[in-house]
Amino acid sequence: MTDTSRVAKSPTDELPQDLLDLAGALRSLPLEHRQTIEPLLCRVIDSTRRRRRILHLVQDALSQLRLDMKYLLFDLEATRRERDEFRRQTEQD
User: Fold this and answer.
1) 50-88: buried (b, 16+ CB within 10 Å) or exposed (e) per residue?
2) How far is 68 from 60, CA to CA, in rounded Å?
């Protein structure tokens, strides 16, 4: 691989070890074979990174949804308590 940044690990964009091993094995091939296989490997690496980013986005969205649900349930319970208290006050009057 000529572009080392494509295979470099970063905390959020880490590649599976088998892809890194494949990239290392590709570097040892003769240039004529490497030129044929390298674009395919780059596409696989790009799609892997894209899937990881999408997975992280989905996980973040689910975490936010869970938090929003907790706030909504808290608000619902508070509203019900207020409603029940108001009913008690109106029945006493």
Assistant:
1) eeeeeeeeeeeeeeeeeeeeeeeeeeeeeeeeeeeeeee
2) 12
Find the mean pLDDT for residues 31-49: 94
* Tokens matching residue 43: 């596409």
Show the domain range for 59.
Answer: 4-92
Q: Where are the extended beta strands (E) located within the chain?
A: none
Buried b (16+ CB within 10 A) or exposed e, 14-41: ebeeeeeebbeebeeeeeeeeeeebeeb
In percent, how much of the chain has pLDDT > 90?
83
The domain total for the chain is: 1
pTM above 0.85, yes or no: no
